[in-house]
Amino acid sequence: MLPRFPGISEEVPNEGKGTHTMAALRQIAFYGKGGIGKSTSSSNISATLAAMGRRVLHVGCDPKHDSTVSLLHGELITPIVDRIKTIQGVRPEDIVRRSPLGVDCVEAGGPEAGVGCGGRGITRMLEIFGAAKLLAPGRYDVAVYDVLGDVVCGGFAAPLRTGIGEKVIIVVSEEVMALYAANNIARAVVHYAENGVHLAGILVNA
Predict the structure, then answer these.
(1) In sequence order, what are the residues at sequence separation of 6 or more whose Cβ sits closer than 8 angstroms to the Cβ of residue 123?
(2) Pairing of β 104-107 and β 142-147
(3) Residue 14 DSSP code
(4) I need a labelling partner for 43 at 20 to 30 A (CA). Which of 34, 107, 149, 161 fits?
(5) How far is the C-alpha of 57 from the C-alpha of 104, rounded, in Å?
(6) Which of 36, 49, 3 is nearest to 185 (CA)?
(7) Strand spans (E) along 47-194
(8) Is residue 150 helix, strand or coil?
(9) pLDDT of 43-95, one tens digit each?
(10) Is the backbone of residue 10 left (phi > 0), alpha (psi -120 to 50) or beta?
(11) How many CB atoms lie within 10 A of CB 124?
């Protein structure tokens, strides 16, 4: 039996007609301390939603660009900031990589360690999304974002600042630093609440 996800219709799309029941794109952002299990949790959610018949976009927001590796059976895809040098004429098919599970995958990427701002990869990625109209109505039912660490850096807070990460799930454990990061993230959600974002839940990965 598949799990239930708040705000996502349980009706299965009519495969014969290709119609979908969801009226609007649902966007879920997974935040938490590095190494807490965000990539594993978020990719499992993406795979499950795809198995439910949803059109899913999975976005890795980490310079390591490894969020989608399990969805792509071990393959590390080239980050979008390394592939797309100009946004003029960019198309959705230039951006995404379809996984065997039917999930469209994107990795933001970022600069090498010690060079530049890690969050710049996310802000640049969102610029490319906008130019390609990747998040246009009707293309996807759910977009899942796997975001690095806490949100001290404004770049990593971009999904909250722009209102893209409307539903925030914080992944935590019993560790003090994991709870400290979770508190920072929750404060950021409150700060950006006027953008339409809210805390959808806390996932304990113990």
Answers:
(1) 155, 158
(2) unpaired
(3) B
(4) 161
(5) 5
(6) 36
(7) 56-61, 97-98, 104-107, 142-147, 167-172
(8) coil
(9) 999 999 999 999 999 999 877 788 999 999 999 998 888 888 778 889 999 99
(10) alpha
(11) 20
| Rounded-to-integer distance, Cα 7 and Cα 26, Å | 8
Give the C-alpha separation, 202 to 204, whole Å.
6
Catalytic residue list contains 64 = yes
CB 43 within 8 A of CB 57: no
Please state, in angstroms and rounded to a whole number, the distance separating the CA atoms of residues 174 and 94: 41
- Confirm whether 150 is a catalytic residue: yes
State the residue for tokens 């539903």.
167
Tokens of 67: 């969020």
Give me the residues paired with residue 202 across strands: 170
Q: Quick one: pLDDT at residue 17?
A: 40
Q: How far is CA 112 from its chain centroid?
A: 21
Alpha carbons 132 and 144: distance in angstroms, whole number? 18
Which residue in the list 17, 38, 62, 82 is annotated as catalytic?
Answer: 38
- Check if the beta carbon of residue 58 is closer than 8 Å to that of residue 71: yes
**Active-site residue, 38 included:** yes
Pair type for strands 26-32 and 167-172:
parallel
The residue assigned the tokens 């890795």 is 60
pTM: 0.84
Q: Which residue among 33, 62, 141, 146 is the active-site one?
A: 33
The tokens for 166 are 């409307």
Catalytic residue among 62, 104, 141, 150: 150
Scan for tokens 């995958």, then name that residue.
105
